[in-house]
Design goal:
Number of strands: 6
Shape: globular
Largest sheet: 6 strands, mixed
Helix content: 40-55%
CATH superfamily: Uracil-DNA glycosylase-like domain
Structural class: alpha/beta
Strand order of the largest sheet: 1-3-2-4-6-5
Order of helices and strands: HHHEEHHEHEHHEEHH
CATH topology: Uracil-DNA Glycosylase, subunit E
Bound molecules: iron/sulfur cluster
CATH class: Alpha Beta
Distance between the termini: 56 Å
Radius of gyration: 24 Å
Strand content: 5-15%
Number of helices: 10
CATH architecture: 3-Layer(aba) Sandwich
Length: about 230
Amino acid sequence: MGSDSRDSQVDQETLCLLQRYITQQMELGYKEVYFSSPFPPPKPEDSSRCRLEEFYERIKDCQRCPLAKSRKNLVFGEGNPQAEIIFVGEAPGGDEDRLGRPFVGRAGQLLTKMLGAIDLTREDIYIANILKCRPPGNRDPLPSEVALCRPYLDQQIEIIDPLVICALGRIAAQTLLDTRRSLGELRGFLHPFRSRRLLVTYHPAALLRNPHLKRPAWEDLKLLCTQLERG
Ligand code: SF4
């Protein structure tokens, strides 16, 4: 049986059921009949997930800046589409470029451990970068690249609508807060960021290079927790 005849059979069945229902309602004395959609309204989580997927489809072949030529994969970001917190790094590294996922190298493994220390998993949060493509040799992002790519992150933040944003490292912090102040000056307190809060802490790669930074990074995470509890 072809799909057309199956569809018309379904339509006939639906019409019969509808007729029977209306007749029953009239027999019961009702003068008006109300119908509701057979589909439940979409959950907010489904809506954010769909919007992120649609947005990814729109930008996945982005050629706005020269990094498109050297990348293996665009690293969009991943995690909970309704996360209360978004962690933002500066740009994908070699492992991330190869796999198309953010924070998957040694620094990413440390970030996962840091999250575990405050009872969070990567499924609870969202992770993205200022740049979606890897700068060659892991050099710092150029201002021209940031200017072209930053709107993508802004759009992700708008869709996910988190309570807090955590900037990982100097470049993410300076870019998001539009300042030249040092990381030391920017960390230790919450910054207003549009209608949200923004916390600055060390990039996990910096913690791997200098373990003495782990203690202040832990203080930052505790501050983050207090904000999430308050939210
Ligand atoms: S870094 Fe951003 S702007 Fe440049 S090509 Fe990649 S996605 Fe496009």
